[in-house]
Amino acid sequence: MLDHEGHVEVITNSKLSSAEDKQLNFDIASLESLQKLSSIGLYDTSVTGNIVALKSLQNLMHIGLVATGVMGDIATLKCLPNLTMIHLNDTGITGDIVNLSSLPKLTEIYLERTNVTGNINNLKSLLNLTVLCIDITDITGDIMDIETLRNLTEIGLSDTYVTGDIAYLGSLLNLTKICLDSANVTGDIVHLKSLEKLEKIWLGRTEVTGDIEHLKSLPKLNDIDFEYTNVYGDEIAFHEFRKSSGLSECE
């Protein structure tokens, strides 16, 4: 782990971790010599530097630098073949997501509120992916391109330039969360009624349509947003139905 002056003290199980410690302030370039490092979890700290400093750490499987001062081009990450999780939301990260297409072990991508670009079509070969959250970016593409990602549990593409018909999500049976609000998507929500694991659907400010009644059969769903859409039905009544059914709420 690291002390508050940013010095490397002890490496335990090849992992570094700290959270919400703004006193933790160092440049990630100081990690270059830690060749056995497999996991970095320094969330919401004052850590800085360019991720190019990590490209020699070939054992890295998890990069967690959320809400830090870290920056750099995600092209660096294609040099890290063992990566399974990328948690870099709320950082100064830039670059095209096409650079992640050569990382077949990826299971989680969190790049919300970064300056990344590119087309989600370039991620359709990442068949192990379970989480794809790139909200509030300039990402483009058609959601039909992620229909192949059958292991997805969470999709976060809100406030992006992604388009397409939500019908293509109907075959992703492991989905628990769909956040596509303020994206350019269309389609009828009836196509989501087979997603029995769904807990959350945010499709506000889109062109989707359909009757909320179709979603009452989903046993875990209790967080919906269809504000400023063509969906009809009473959202308040839906939530009252959930409460009367005694269904547990999402965490």
General description of the model:
The protein is mostly beta strands and 251 residues long. Helices cover 4% and strands 28% of the residues. The protein has one helix spanning 235-244, and strands spanning 15-19, 39-43, 48-50, 62-64, 69-73, 85-87, 92-96, 108-110, 115-117, 131-133, 140-142, 154-156, 161-165, 177-179, 184-188, 200-202, 207-211, 223-225, 230-232. A ten-stranded parallel beta sheet has the order 1-2-4-6-8-10-12-14-16-18, with no helix packed on it. Strands 11-13-15-17-19 form a five-stranded parallel beta sheet, with no helix packed on it. The longest helix has 10 residues, at 235-244. The protein starts with 14 loop residues before the first strand and ends in a 7-residue tail after the last helix.
Task: Indicate the structural class.
Answer: mainly beta
C-alpha-based Rg, rounded: 20 Å
In angstroms, what separates the terminal alpha carbons?
A: 30 Å
Largest sheet: 10 strands, parallel
Mean pLDDT over all positions: 91
Total strands: the figure is: 19
Question: Secondary-structure element sequence?
Answer: EEEEEEEEEEEEEEEEEEEH
Net shape: elongated
Instruction: Record the strand order, biggest sheet.
Output: 1-2-4-6-8-10-12-14-16-18
Number of helices: 1
Which parts are unreliable, with pLDDT below 50 for 5 consecutive residues or more?
Answer: 1-12, 247-251
| Strand fraction | 25-35%
Helix content: under 10%
Summarize the structure.
It is built from one helix and 19 strands. The chain is mainly beta and 251 residues long.
